[in-house]
Amino acid sequence: MRRAAALAFLALAASLAGCNRGPEAGLAVEDAWVRLPAVAGRPGAGYFTLRGGPAADRMAAIDSPSAARAELHQGGKMDGMMTMRPINGVDLPSGGRVAFAPEGDHVMLFGIDPAIKPGGTMRLQFRFRSGETRQADARVVAAGDPAPSFAP
Ligand SMILES: [Cu+2]
Predict the structure, then answer these.
(1) Does residue 9 lie in a domain region?
(2) Residue 14 Cα, ligand 1 centroid: separation in angstroms?
(3) How many CB atoms lie within 10 A of CB 25?
(4) Number of domains in the chain
(5) How remote is the CA of residue 109 from the centroid of ligand 1, in Å?
(6) Is residue 104 a part of any domain in this protein?
């Protein structure tokens, strides 16, 4: 009886594992969104959550087919003012989560394609030091709009 239950569990685990491809399958980009600039031609900002795979990694760069250039920025506040500075990546612990969120880290998107509109999506491409890549279709909101809510 106990053995049968153990076998059933193994079968379930195997079928769940079958959904994944390769040992790095846990690495993911979730809940990506982009806030467009208030003034056309100014940079927009992108936010997302990185989910670490089985091995520690580092997210090293983002680019987009719909932006001329993208920079990773570390954001913060100093004396009540928003500050930002370029960073060359962010460490992603094994199985960990790293959030890029308003008033914190973000990807600055320069030269956004005018065809990108609120309510649409914008493709972001993530490159990791391990050589892994991921894509996300970020939800696009207008400058004054609140952050989109993502299903848990
Ligand atoms: Cu910035």
Answers:
(1) no
(2) 43
(3) 13
(4) 1
(5) 8
(6) yes
Q: Please indicate, yes or no, if residue 52 is contained in any of the structural domains.
A: yes
Q: Ligand 1 centre and the CA of 134: distance in Å?
A: 21
CA of 103 to the centre of ligand 1 (A): 10
27-45 tens-digit pLDDT? 999 999 999 999 988 999 9
Ligand 1 centroid to 105 CA: how many Å? 8
Give residue-wise pLDDT tens across range 120-137.
999 999 999 999 999 999
Which pTM was predicted? 0.82
- Ligand 1 centroid to 43 CA: how many Å? 8
Task: List helix spans (H) across the chain.
Answer: 2-17
Residue 85 covered by a domain:
yes
**Cα-to-centroid distance, 16 and ligand 1 (Å):** 39
Q: How far is the CA of 98 from the centre of ligand 1 (A)?
A: 17
CATH code of 90's domain? 2.60.40.1890
The CA 96 to ligand 1 mean position distance, Å, reads 24
Domain around 113: 24-141
Residue 66 DSSP class: T
Report the C-alpha gap between 136 and 98 in whole angstroms.
15
DSSP 101-137: -TTS-EEEEEEE-TT--TTSEEEEEEEETTS-EEEEE
